[in-house]
Amino acid sequence: MTTSTITEDETSVSPPTASMFAAPDPDVNQSTFERNETIEPILSFGLITDIHYADHDDRWNHVQTHLRRYRNSANLVDEACHYWLNGKYPISFVLQLGDLIDGVCSTNKTSGSDLNVILEQFKKTLNSLPVYHIWGNHELYNFTRQELLNGPLCSFDTKTSSPAHYGTFEVCPNLRIIALDTYEFSALGVGNDSEVYGQSMELLRKHNQNESPNDPTGLRGHQRRYVQFNGGITSKQINWLKEQLTEAKNRDEKVIVIGHIPIHPSACDHLDLLWNYKEVLDLLWIFDRTVLAYIAGHDHDGGYFRDRKNIHHLTLPAIVECDPNTNSFATVHVYKDCLLIEGVGRIATYKIDCQFFFYLIETMRLYNRVVLMHRKQIWQPWMSQGRSVLNYSMEHIPHVVLGIPFAVFFMVVIASKEIYKANAYQFNVYKRRLMIRRPEDIPTEYRPFCS
Questions:
Q1: Rounded CA gap, 100 and 154, in Å?
Q2: Residues 165, 244 contacting (CB under 8 angstroms)
Q3: Helix, strand, coil proportions of the chain in percent (round to 5)?
Q4: Contact 50, 298 (CB under 8 A)
Q5: Structure confidence by residue, pLDDT tens digits, 147-163
Q6: How far, in Å, are 125, 167, 289 from residue 128 at the CA level?
Q7: Strands 167-172 and 175-179
Q8: Could you give the CA distance from residue 345 to residue 225 in angstroms, rounded to a whole number?
Q9: How far is Cα 376 from Cα 325, in angstroms, rounded to an integer?
Q10: Signed CA dihedral, 146, 151, 297, 177: sign only
Q11: Could you tell me which residue ranges the Calcineurin-like phosphoesterase domain spans (predicted)?
Q12: pTM of structure
């Protein structure tokens, strides 16, 4: 992906207006991004997560907030596959981000048959197109790790990572995907007598004193992540991730990282965070010029956040909790200078620029010009005349008095403009996610961006 000049029209985001609070057409996904339809993407691929298929009657989730329509999820997968196959830009593969079947399948002793049903749903429509699977907590409710490694949900070469399931592959020149196993360190999918089970339960008991390790009662903020349906990754996988990111950086590649569990507190409910999210996030921030996005599932409401290092954190809403006549999947279009994540139904549309250091580079160029001007107009004459710094500085007080405040003012204006655009974009995502209808429903921090 080559760096190209961005114009003001391409990056500006208009603040929301009162007319935007009208009820949107439920069949049309709302997007703030318009692209030139004459430009074809280099490649496209599909994104889907939290299907939770089961041959079981609909029922409420464990907190009684959303109805899970188990059988209907197969119909939504079929709809998504037909959309991908018959779209203007056919996809090359699909990323399935975990929880393909529900834990109720294990209770009903239908894990194998239900898995075959939903895999057949992909196969009969997509034919030979590859589907890459990563494992969520519900895969580990139904199967042991060894069963998963020997089954159809093993999508990567695990000779060096077994029993963990992580890997990487090149999407196209200069873009690769890195898939993490966010349950490598967890109490799920392993025997109760295993070492990793004992260490995981010890960590949970240290932070969560409730009788049930899945009960977050009494936990506050980020501490709510210490429940049994979450997990973490070990130092072995951290080191592997660092090696992959280093290799990508050296080859001037961009990277999309995927995992079932989100890693940024602002992109999900704190109840659905990776146990050692800070460790992973700190590593991605070291390679902020390489990593474009982290895409996850797990939190069924979904979420989005662009962090301080310009890494986009996208949490996809669940298929299984879609209302009738809607869906939840996305198509990623890869262009030479950006990614367009085109959502359908519950998922909004996002644009990820691949040259997010453009403004920094331009600022450095301006700084270099100022330095050269200073050397030519001030430093060299002073050195050649042999005059004292104090005397020469007194003659150039206007340069200091006027130049420095002007430079500071210029930087503040540019920074404020970029912050405004980022927050306006964030508000648009927030509005679409919660389907805000009235201005009084807007959170206080977003009201300055409404006209």
A1: 13
A2: no
A3: 40, 15, 45
A4: yes
A5: 999 999 999 988 878 88
A6: 9, 21, 34
A7: antiparallel
A8: 28
A9: 68
A10: positive
A11: 45-301
A12: 0.74
